[in-house]
Description:
9-stranded mixed beta sheet; 23% helix; globular; two-stranded parallel ribbon; disordered N terminus
Amino acid sequence: MSMRIAVALAATIGAGVLMSTAAQARPEMVGTHLADYSPGTIVVKTNERRLYLVLDSGHAVRYPVGVGKSGKQWAGTTRIDGKYRNPAWAPPAEVKRDKPSIPDVIPGGSPRNPMGVAAMTLSGGEYAIHGTNVPGSIGGFVSYGCIRMLNDDITDLYSRVSVGTTVVVTR
């Protein structure tokens, strides 16, 4: 009898852990005050550490993100200029200067690649909206200016937007 209870309890706890992990990566439909933005616009609110994909004047899909650390944040309007699955990563000069031991290129698919499963590059700089190999960094001020997402979330967003999508980053 106690063995059956222990097995049932373990199964219940295991299912709860699996369900809570999946819920963290699931995009959330929310009501918003983003009426100033056209449907299809991506709005990153740095201080909230949230990314919104505007659906209409009162609704958006919201994702948790990691954003630029102190001194590495930026704000402005840009566009997605490229979309890549399992991208290789070449560290920008500033990262290489701060961490000279980093390889010049980390291949796509490598567990050491900080871009995760997908990346969408932003025009006008060395920034991207991308996945991550460090899911615990999501929700923090952690990057050199890129917008980090959970791999399941970047996969979802990647499928919803196209090259040319407007991206607005606010503080």
